[in-house]
Write the structure tokens for this entry.
Amino acid sequence: MNIYTTEKSQQYLTRVKSFIDQHILPIEADILAENRRLNHSSDWTQWQLSQQIEALKAQAKADGLWNLFLPDATLAQGLTCVEYACLAEEMGRSILAPEIFNCNAPDTGNMEVLYHFGNEQQKAQWLSPLLSGDIRSVFAMTEPDVASSDATNMQATIIEDGDDVIVNGRKWWSTGLGHPNCQVMIFMGLSHPDAAKHQRHSMVLVPLDTPGVNITRMLTAYGDYDAPYGHGEMDLVNVRVPKGNVIMGLGKGFEIAQGRLGPGRIHHCMRAIGAAERALSLAIKRGQSRVAFSQPIIKLGGNLERIAQARIAIEQARLLTLNAAWKIDNLGVKHAMTDISAIKVAVPNMLTQVVDMAIQLYGGAGMNHDTPLAGFATMARSLRLADGPDEVHMAMVSRLELAKYK
Amino acid sequence: MNIYTTEKSQQYLTRVKSFIDQHILPIEADILAENRRLNHSSDWTQWQLSQQIEALKAQAKADGLWNLFLPDATLAQGLTCVEYACLAEEMGRSILAPEIFNCNAPDTGNMEVLYHFGNEQQKAQWLSPLLSGDIRSVFAMTEPDVASSDATNMQATIIEDGDDVIVNGRKWWSTGLGHPNCQVMIFMGLSHPDAAKHQRHSMVLVPLDTPGVNITRMLTAYGDYDAPYGHGEMDLVNVRVPKGNVIMGLGKGFEIAQGRLGPGRIHHCMRAIGAAERALSLAIKRGQSRVAFSQPIIKLGGNLERIAQARIAIEQARLLTLNAAWKIDNLGVKHAMTDISAIKVAVPNMLTQVVDMAIQLYGGAGMNHDTPLAGFATMARSLRLADGPDEVHMAMVSRLELAKYK
Amino acid sequence: MNIYTTEKSQQYLTRVKSFIDQHILPIEADILAENRRLNHSSDWTQWQLSQQIEALKAQAKADGLWNLFLPDATLAQGLTCVEYACLAEEMGRSILAPEIFNCNAPDTGNMEVLYHFGNEQQKAQWLSPLLSGDIRSVFAMTEPDVASSDATNMQATIIEDGDDVIVNGRKWWSTGLGHPNCQVMIFMGLSHPDAAKHQRHSMVLVPLDTPGVNITRMLTAYGDYDAPYGHGEMDLVNVRVPKGNVIMGLGKGFEIAQGRLGPGRIHHCMRAIGAAERALSLAIKRGQSRVAFSQPIIKLGGNLERIAQARIAIEQARLLTLNAAWKIDNLGVKHAMTDISAIKVAVPNMLTQVVDMAIQLYGGAGMNHDTPLAGFATMARSLRLADGPDEVHMAMVSRLELAKYK
Amino acid sequence: MNIYTTEKSQQYLTRVKSFIDQHILPIEADILAENRRLNHSSDWTQWQLSQQIEALKAQAKADGLWNLFLPDATLAQGLTCVEYACLAEEMGRSILAPEIFNCNAPDTGNMEVLYHFGNEQQKAQWLSPLLSGDIRSVFAMTEPDVASSDATNMQATIIEDGDDVIVNGRKWWSTGLGHPNCQVMIFMGLSHPDAAKHQRHSMVLVPLDTPGVNITRMLTAYGDYDAPYGHGEMDLVNVRVPKGNVIMGLGKGFEIAQGRLGPGRIHHCMRAIGAAERALSLAIKRGQSRVAFSQPIIKLGGNLERIAQARIAIEQARLLTLNAAWKIDNLGVKHAMTDISAIKVAVPNMLTQVVDMAIQLYGGAGMNHDTPLAGFATMARSLRLADGPDEVHMAMVSRLELAKYK
């Protein structure tokens, strides 16, 4: 319990925690093993969904633990950013949980874009099936041929042509592109190369079955295809979609991107904190149960200090993130810019350290797929790059800091 | 502004900040230089007080910015722990400020002990002049001959003898012992060697002019005598004081110590955060104003990343400390044990890093006495040892963490 | 060039470097992609060898760049430990190279065991085909059910039964067990549970096709099966092999293990240094060729400082390892115990840092299989656990350090 | 013993070590306490020399352990850079030792300048009394008003005027300026502001008693005046010295500076390594002899791991420095540029860590003047700034690294 907790969030927290403890964790290893069997190949067109996960999704939906991330009291439960944050942490304990509660990235961010910036037709066509969990989606931004840490580098094009726009370009690290239910992407590209820097780009909805969308491969992250989601690479060649698929209007890409980022980073970071709590817990249990040199290994060398440092780092990371969420709710995203960049740096690095410690305590068992640790490690590594590398966010923090002195 | 702020603390914060900005910072360098002139010798009996500081104390007292640390609405302003915390941060910006507001350690801790545990006579005799700022005091705990990180090691003795107790033993790092106005110490010693571990020690008030109190020398911390306070070493040989000087009763030493610690650590840590803010600010200003290799040095190498890391670390440290204070206020010290040890580890280490960065940016000027940086560095170093080294607090955090699994 | 270089090692270095540059690096990505195609499944019984690698092995053998690790002038080129060290570094630049030069772990260590401790029949039967590169081998030591960082924990048994021994137990992380050519393992187990601590275990050669050897699965390391080698798990149930398969005699397991360790760690560490050099080189080239925020990314933030830190760390790691090798050659393994443990800690941690920096500079491309970086990262992670985790080696170093004061 | 040792260096090492162990260490604390008594004031004009040190100097001179740093077989013992390096390490164990063997900075560097670049008259007038230990000297380079990390920033001027040059400018951190025997400075200033960047500055010998040389104060480093040496600040106002005092000729300042730097950094770094060895040794002895929580404190928490990390870091730092020295001797300074900058970064940071660990183990006793630790800590802090801050040297290393790819 802490100062950020509300009664409402506390109630949902109890229910989410109970669902995860009762329904997910006991069969988590089974589901992950089944997933490896079903999806052992790099050929994503053969990937299949786990029916156990589908069943758990139906149950979560029936229990009203569904779309909790969406700050809408009708379509969802109307939780604030800070209220949802503690639920996101809880979901982060299991790699499987976010999907089961329909709170998984990148769908959550895409749903938020459609919710905040989509028109009625776009909402009917894409937001509804996403909210119901029937389809999955992709956010196509990163490009292989340019340093995408500078988003203004993006070279893919979105060109008006009568009532349509024509989309061309190469994207990669499009997470979820291999998912059997993935049907649509939000594609960001250059529409007005001569406009002011942050008015050059647009976002357009592109159904995956549009002619000219060529998925070329799925990428591994540290050897893992992350099936059945996958991180896809694709070429779009003269892909024609109606202008009505453009979100908010041409040239609004950066405006939308800004709006998408704040809560999304809170979610990512809180999930990472949940993962860190799980890793710490696993480390302690393992360290207490295994014996070497006549001692439980938790008592050897600097292990207890590392446990303490992990606890201290997690607490700081959580407070930093909750405070950023509180600022978003109470002061607005524009007053939380330092905070949002700060958590993007601090939290994945904290997770990296905590998971590394846990793996080191586990020994070989920590590196293989018998525990969630290797998955968390890869997640931590990805998060230090995804959505802007640490360095870009440090640059943002220092820029805002220096601006105080002008 | 943050979630922990109350209207009352905000009002005091504005006043304290204004006092520091208007009255202290403009003459801080002058006062420190005067202090070096007045107190250049290692012979503490020659040390003198700065009349500029005495004048500022009178002014702060007149302005009602006095004893803000004390949670009593009559004797002081009745601020909660979390309300005072942000004022302590503000005071931490200048090494001079805590004294000027009569909020300096170890007097604050000693006043709290007397306030919470002293009897009426003890309060009349010692608390009153301390609250008025007329005398200074010492907390005599650490001993040169044993590892004092384990407080149960303490060997100094407090032996009943009729209506008196007789005190013997050697203490050091008794901060403030060289101060011209220092008149009394709270002395901790062994009274019941055969009792249960935490009922063996007692605390007794010993006036410095009691026969048998022999101050042997002042110690340097990194070469600095910290005049006119000083870190003293002393031998007590058959020092006789009335039993009425024992606080709470014999055997209550650890009970008192526990009560003293929580708020005191909040104060120390918040002052350290204020020091870190000052150091960061100095670093940025210096880095923007000096040029090397055709660039302001703030733009060279990894300097901007270090600025960002400092900002991120400070924010985390502040939230961790404020949250610990909030827990003390709302849940009680017993529910904040992890937090109180966590800040004791995290905050001084953060300050160490931030100050080191600032000094590195400053070059030679950062090491000498022209800026507060070297003083902050020494303070950070001391804080990692004082009141229990990092390692003891990490051991506490890990012990509490493992206890969750039993 | 440095003080450790001999003319002989310099000549071989030139040839090995030239072979790698001309024959391996240009097709490295092709071979790795082919390997992913051939061995995309987790079913190791389907794994196949790359014919490109087989061809390169033949060429290396023909060129006399073969078995360079073996300190024998007849069977190999008679290079000293320090002479081979710089070749191992060179080979470490490509994950493929050690196999191509028949210098891959764990075969090198197994060949050394047979070379130093095997009898004539064991050499004829197993050392010869290993030296010719016709078969591969496994070292079966780590067990899933005990903390194997303390080797005396090993529970698998080797029991005399007439002219045979009977082997029982479960092993995992047996690297190479999935390789199509893997035919034999050196199995370590408990033979004399009541003997002195380091005389309880034995090593025995067990052909993989012996009845009772059941390979249960291959393990992933961070999601990677490391095909066609694999890290295997197996159950041995009443596996009967002739006593003649015992190496050196029963109870000699630890003695052999000690002898195996020194040079093996040099090899591992020098390969890791080669990997670090490759990673640094990739980072610089990438950083110079990509542009963000109007600058080559190498010039942004703290990147150049990280390049410098990588260079400094690599140089220190190399000198530490070469010096350990020099001590093994000139003073003997027993006088290099601190050094051998020191490199085991320092070098994989250095590699971890350098590769992490390179990946961070690369962005998403650094995490997937288009570069060797993710492979190096997994290798670094494994090396911090394999052959004793960091913590065990730090314990060794501190134990030897404290012993100086007795 | 290591590969860099020669028979000659080994012999001198034995003698130096024996001298320090027998004659210096037993009275080191006494001498330091005497020094604090003699030189307790900030008024450097009152500073006095310890007669104990003067006696030890005479003895070292008589024993032929004198000027060992100088690579001249007639004036000294003709030791190479790498041969002297291990002696410098040995001397680094005691803050007092370098002076006693006439191997103290900045005199060593100044003597090298005169030896390599001075003319006969300059040698007769200044090198001789420096070599005999009769006078002390200063190197006046750093300026308070500019970022001196960029040496081309220097603003002090050296202007030709007939047969004289006229020197103007403000310098600080001129180490040794407070020493009673200090008689001369090597002053670097701008003589040709319009010349090519590295031909603008000159070095000139300025006797301290020349009219216009005004010493304004001594600076503290972390509160320590470092008496009787002192770090001085001075104003030179129209100081006139004969042109014959210019070293090598006007415009040669940078050329001389380059030549001065290589060996000087080796000496500094090796002394720092000696200090680290001493600190490690003190830490272990303290940790073994003090008990807390029923254990020798060396066994608590992560202490043993920190001992191991210190050992590993020291070994790496020593090899890096010895290898740089070996390169200077065998390949020339120009081929050791990366190495010389690398040690400047690595070694003081290593010392910082090792000393910090030792102080943390010592508790309060580590911070005061009863042990050499606080002095080593201040030395480490200074070394990270002196002679170019870490950042400048990292920039050099990365520049040389990137140059490999052009």
Notes: The beta strands of chain A are 136-140, 157-161, 164-175, 182-190, 201-207, 213-219, 231-242, 291-292, 295-296. Chain A has a mean pLDDT of 96. Residues 253-289 of chain A form the longest helix (37 residues).
